Amino acid sequence: MDLKGKGALVTGGGSGLGAATARALAVRGAKVALLDVNLDAAKALADEIGGLALSCDVADAASAEAAVAQAGEAHGAPLVLVNCAGIAPAKRIVGRDGPMDLADFKKVIDVNLVGSFNLIRLAGAAMAGNEPDGDGQRGVIVSTASVAAFEGQIGQSAYAASKGGVHSLTLVAAREFARTGIRVCAIAPGIFGTPMVLGMPQEVQDSLAAQIPFPSRLGKPEEFARLVESIVDNPMLNGETIRLDGAIRMGAK
């Protein structure tokens, strides 16, 4: 798929997987809009790649609608959406202080799952008006699931549920959007060198890396971005959640 001069939306584009993806799409000639609650981080990267930084709370309908509209005014309808915005707080269902606050669970679902759906609905509506390419494609949507969708660990109840929802949403959306030529996939990363992980003590990082069969290291955000590019380029990739994890299978804790 030719991205030159085409609009692309990346949520969580100010850091981590989103930042690497935004850079990769910009290299391909896409006009990238970085949607992030951390506007300063998004602006710094937008200045670097010639993109557009937009403040966006993906879980809020009005905020997302405004950001997608602004991106459309600047870059035209998007050809690509990559959902990278997410949070991963750890908390047991029932801990030493009693049951988890329901609000804590809802917040993770709102950002990770509702936020992904929010952008899918808005980008999908905008993409439907694109001119189809030779394969009849009008757009590509890639969301971020996680290996926790399949092997959630103790303390990851909210996170695993949210990412399991992203996985389940992918095929349904792909089937619905097939009639308009929009493909939908998800990537389920393992343990990657995102700001959250790199902020941990080195011994913790080393322990995490040792759990990965091969290569026994943290995944690189650039490797996530390369898979996004592969999904964009391969018309037969549709409705799939692709694990990107070095063959790791997470234990209970």
UniProtKB/TrEMBL annotation:
Domain Ketoreductase residues, every copy: 6-190
InterPro entries the UniProt entry points to: KR_dom, NAD(P)-bd_dom_sf, Sc_DH/Rdtase_CS, SDR_fam
Pfam families, A to Z: adh_short (PF00106)
Domain of life: Bacteria
GO molecular function: oxidoreductase activity
Keyword terms, alphabetized: Oxidoreductase
Family to which this protein belongs: Belongs to the short-chain dehydrogenases/reductases (SDR) family.
Protein name (record): NAD(P)-dependent dehydrogenase, short-chain alcohol dehydrogenase family
Organism: Thalassobaculum litoreum DSM 18839
Lineage of the species this protein comes from: Bacteria, Pseudomonadati, Pseudomonadota, Alphaproteobacteria, Rhodospirillales
